[in-house]
Structures are given as C-alpha cells and as structure tokens.
Amino acid sequence: ANGRPQISASFRDVAIDGAPSEDGAPEQGGSTVSITVVGASGDLAKKKIFPALFALYYEDCLPEHFTVFGYARSKMSDEELRNMISLTLTCRIDQRENCSDKMEQFLKRCFYQSGQYNSEEGFSELDRKLKEKETIVVEHTNLYEQMQNGYDCEAHANTFHQAGKVQNRLFYLSIPPNIFVDVVRSASRTASSQDGWTRFIVEKPFGRDSESSGELTRNLKKYLAEEQIFRIDHYLGKELVENLSVLRFSNLVFEPLWSRNYIRNVQLIFSEDFGTEGRGGYFDNYGIIRDIMQNHLLQILALFAMETPVSLDAEDIRNEKVKVLRSMRQLRLEDVVVGQYKGHSKGGKTYPAYVDDPTVPSGSITPTFAAAALFIDNARWDGVPFLMKAGKALHTRRAEIRVQFRRVPGNLYGRRSRSVRGGGTTATELEKATNELVLRVQPDEAIYLKINSKVPGLGMRLDSSDLNLLYSERYPAEIPDAYERLLLDAIEGERRLFIRSDELDAAWAIFTPVLADLEANKVAPELYPYGSRGPVGAHYLAANHNVRWG
Ligand code: NDP
Ligand code: BG6
C-alpha cells in the first residue's frame, strides 16, 4: 500500500496490492469483510450508506466474502431491514442488466441486530451473529470450490484455511455524535475481529470546537488506534474534489500559476435551495459554520492550497494538508457575516422561516448562512483572500471552487486605440474580464476556464468565453456517489480521503475563536428571504477584500 504509483496508476490499483495494512493482516486475499451500519434505521443509512454498498456490490467492487449488518435500537427482523433498504436501492444507471437479480443477491447478505448503543450484550450478540455469517461464508466457499474443482482434500483444506483465516470488520457510525464513544467502547470490546482488522468510520460532526473535538478524539483513542478511525468528510469523495489535485499536479499550465503572483482570490461556495427541514434539531446545535465551512469547504481549501506532497501516499498528502491548515490565520469576527433565512411567499407558495421548524427553539440565532474571508500566512498565499460562502434556503443548489486570476499587466487590449476598428474593449471591461477557473463540484460537474477572446468579425472587440470541460459530455458514465468511493477506501484501508486527528485539530483552531465570539456576543444573523441570494452583508465583506462573488 505504500508503493508510489505511476501517473497512470489509480489509487485503487495502489490500495489493493495485497500488502499488509497497518491495523491488521492482509487486505483481501482469503478474508471476509463484515460491514455493520450502526444507526441502520436512520436517514443517512437509508439515503446513502446502503445504496452505496449496493452500488459497490453491483460493480463487483466489494470483496467476495462480505456481509452487511444493520444495528440500531429499533426492533426489526432481517426481512424488515431488507424491505426498508430495498426502497432506496437503485441501479446507478437505470435498467442495467441483472439489476433486480443483483439486488436480491445483495439483500440476502444483509442482516439485522437490534440493541442499545452502550450495551456490551447487544454487541456480543452481534459478534456471535457475525461469526456465524463469517463461518457460513467460508462453508459456501468450500462448496463452491468443490463444485468447481472436483473434490480435492488438499485444496479443500487450503480453501478453508484461507477463507477462514482473516475476518475483517468495518463499523459505520451513522448515529448522533453524543453516542459515538458508547458504541466504540462496547463494539471494540465485544465485537472486534480476533485476527483481522477492525475499523470504524465516524460521521461528522467531530465535536463543536477545539475542546470538544479533542475530548472526542481522546475518548475514541481509549479504545481505538488512530489507524482504526476513519473520519469521513463526504466532500472529499466527490469526483471534482478528487480531480482538484490531478488538475493541479498533472498539468504544466496550472501549477506555475498557483500562487499569490497570479491568483487574486479563491472562492469556495456552497449553497442549497432547501432549508433545514427535518434536521432542524441537529442543525440548531451546530449552525452552518460547523456544518459546512469547518469541514467540507475547509477540506477543499486545504487540498487546493497545499504544497506538492512527497507522494500520493495518504500520510504524505495529509501531512501537506495539516501544514497548510496550520499556516492559516484564526478567523476574526470582522471577517465573518452570518445570516438566517426567513419565511417568504412566492408564486402563491409559502416558504417557511428557519425558526418555523418545530424542532428549532423560537428566537434561535443559529446561522443558516455564513460568509468568511480566510488567509494563509505562507509564502505562496500571503495576502490572497480565500472567501467562503455557505447557505441553506438560497436561490440555487451548487458547490463550486472559483479561482480569480489577476489582471493582465499593461494589457494591450485595454487601451483605446485609433488603429483598432470599433475602438476596442475598454480598460474597465477588461478589468472585469480577468481569467477565472471554475470547478463546479455539483450539480452538472464541470471545469471551465474563462478566457478573453476576439469576437469574430472585422472589428476588434473582446469577449469573455469559456474553455469548458462538461463532465456529462466528456464522461457520459454516471459519476459514483461520494459514499461509494469512501466506503471502498475504508474497506481497502486507503486513508487518503479521511481526516487525521491533527488535521481536525488544525481545522478547529481556525474556527473555534470566532464561533466562541459569535456565541458570546449573541451576534444576530442578518435575515434573508428563503430562496434569495442571501444577506447583502456577504457582498460588503467581499468588497472589503476587493472581491466580487462569482
Ligand atoms: P438520525 O437522527 O436519523 O439517527 C440515526 C439513528 O440513530 C436513528 O435511526 C436512531 O436509531 C438513532 N438515534 C437517533 N437519535 C438518537 C438519540 N438521541 N439517542 C440514541 N440513538 C439515537 O441521523 P442521520 O442518519 O441523519 O445521521 C447519522 C450521522 O450522520 C449523524 O452523525 C449526522 O450528523 C451524520 N450526517 C448525516 C447526514 C444526513 O444527510 N442525514 C449528512 C452528513 C452527516 P434507533 O432509534 O433505531 O436506535
Ligand atoms: C452534510 C450537511 O454534511 O452535507 C448537510 O450536514 C448538507 O447539511 C449536506 O445538506 C450536503 O451534502 P451534498 O452531498 O448533498 O452536497
């Protein structure tokens, strides 16, 4: 797993080379993998985790011998779990061959165990069932092998030994954060693999600030080694975010421009055209800065701004991310604008205010929108504003990285000239039309570069147009969901896209002081109508740094 890939090698090729992982025995050969979704009755499990597991199974990406378990307090039979998850399973590309057969086969490998989250008995019972299935998988293998090869004592013994040798277990904690430690304590004590690896995927939020995050890490580490903890940030599994480093480090044209010398500002934009409906209870405890900025947007920023890693190895990449995060200035209150959506009627339809949600306390001042200006105090980025904007209930759904370049010095085409028919393009027009690189993470994934070019004709007018890589045109195959990539990585022991504890500490260090100030000063959010472009304060903030939002 530590080999340095060639340019053509995928991380997948590198990850499954069969080398022992740091936390266990061989990755795949002769092993079983049991995946337990803790909190299986919940929203994320149904919406994302089970469908992602099925997609991996459909694509033959899961190891041969795997089982899936759901664990939660709700009472359910295996059959009821299968019925529940079958409602959200889809074939990624409609009408694909054998989809319903594959679904049936997948569902047969899904089982359920009900239990409390802090109960060692519950997880012991799960352990018993896991062992049962792990053995059944082995027996099936033997029967299958026998049918294929004819009976051969030696081969039989080898197969049994091989398939039964390593039993790997992955727990996905899809539960509220206040019970992460209970589950880890009980599950690690009673349901860890005896001879293979045991890994825990932990969902966000990882704490509310530096202190609580540190405490969570310390508590998890009472029961687990760092190598066993896979802190997930699903934005790191998105295709365009994966492509960010490829774009930068494998094209000669970008890396030389990637600094304060050529880049004026960088914008990281997240917006959703729906509110917090259904998740108000969770959201009110966290707010948009913790929900989106401190993790998803900051992770993208770190990948964008880090120095070239020594290799594509997970630790080399994470080392660079930590370095750049630690070079960032703590965010100050004057560099933040917060907002909250209010009710709004449009076209005969009424949209609720954030505080109309019955699970949100009345009078809540939790921000559902924030804009912030961040700075990296290192030689590469000194003085370049990194502007973040994240909001719920805005006019559109999008996630983008926008890189605005400096203007061309002494631009020939910005001068009015008698020798240019039609007078040319004005300096003001050109000032606006600087180059801009946009990575549209979602929807309609695309990378485009705004350039100036000549409008065809006898005159000499310039026009801003795009060099456009639209994924749906260039790569018609459907893009895998982020959870598919991340689950597969966790199974394969590839940690590159998961957050290391020192990265997390560095990320919280940037945001914790401002979060404390916002709360201590009870800063009232600027109200903006549901479905609007958000508070005008965001424009003033950008203007203070000579930036216009893209
Ligand atoms: P849910 O609120 O749906 O909770 C998951 C399960 O946990 C529930 O089905 C319930 O199962 C159990 N549970 C819920 N509340 C409690 C409680 N107070 N005490 C004990 N058990 C409880 O969560 P989600 O599925 O929405 O999210 C799971 C995790 O993933 C959370 O950490 C969340 O922050 C994170 N996340 C969620 C996203 C989403 O889109 N939903 C997106 C990104 C991250 P039972 O009662 O059967 O035991
Ligand atoms: C989650 C946030 O992490 O990401 C949600 O908690 C948000 O509030 C979601 O809606 C957005 O994810 P995606 O993949 O739909 O953009």
Automatic annotation (TrEMBL):
Put simply, this protein is called Glucose-6-phosphate 1-dehydrogenase
Q: Do the record's keywords include NADP?
A: yes
What species does this protein belong to?
Oryza meridionalis
Which GO molecular function entries does the Swiss-Prot or TrEMBL record give? glucose-6-phosphate dehydrogenase activity; NADP binding
Determine the domain of life of the protein's source. Eukaryota
Q: Which NCBIfam families match?
A: zwf
Q: What's in the keyword line of the UniProt record? A: Carbohydrate metabolism, Glucose metabolism, NADP, Oxidoreductase
Pathway assigned in UniProt: Carbohydrate degradation; pentose phosphate pathway; D-ribulose 5-phosphate from D-glucose 6-phosphate (oxidative stage): step 1/3
> Which intervals hold domain Glucose-6-phosphate dehydrogenase C-terminal?
246-549
Q: Which family does it belong to?
A: Belongs to the glucose-6-phosphate dehydrogenase family.
Q: Catalytic activity, per the record?
A: D-glucose 6-phosphate + NADP(+) = 6-phospho-D-glucono-1,5-lactone + NADPH + H(+)
Question: Entry's InterPro entries?
Answer: G6P_DH (IPR001282), G6P_DH_AS (IPR019796), G6P_DH_C (IPR022675), G6P_DH_NAD-bd (IPR022674), NAD(P)-bd_dom_sf (IPR036291)
Biological process terms from the Gene Ontology for this record are:
glucose metabolic process; pentose-phosphate shunt, oxidative branch
Its biological purpose: Catalyzes the rate-limiting step of the oxidative pentose-phosphate pathway, which represents a route for the dissimilation of carbohydrates besides glycolysis.
EC no. given is 1.1.1.49
Pull one GO CC term from this UniProt entry.
Answer: chloroplast stroma
- Domain (Glucose-6-phosphate dehydrogenase NAD-binding) spans 37-135, 161-243
